[in-house]
Design goal:
The chain is mainly α. It is built from three helices and three strands; from the N terminus they run ααβββα. Strands 1-2-3 form a three-stranded antiparallel beta sheet, with no helix packed on it.
Length: 137
Amino acid sequence: MEFILSVFTTSQWIIVIALLVAVAVFVFKIGNWRGRKQEIESEIKKRINSQRATIKGQVSEQIAPLLPNFPYDISECRFMGKPIDFIVFKGISDNNISEIVFVEVKSGKNKTLNQNEKTLRDAVKNKKVKWVQYNFE
């Protein structure tokens, strides 16, 4: 043991120890960077999947009247998008509107209404709907 200690001077031992510490810190940083890289890749995948689900939902909303089990005639549907997906004017194709229906289309896992959809639903249920004619010259 005495031979190993006598190989280097004190200043050389300090340099060796400093180099070992630097290597240890470097190795730790590399490992930490790899873990962070995996977190970033995971977050990117999650966001891409979320965007895909959003786009799929938006497309589904617009093609819903084309599906076989859609309860209204496609010619009577008017796409709004926001705050409600469709307004259906029952009978408009016969020039005799008998009912107006607000339709919100949900697809995938999300079946809950957002706040605007809830308040619109409640306004319709509470008959807070009116007709206004605006004339300008």
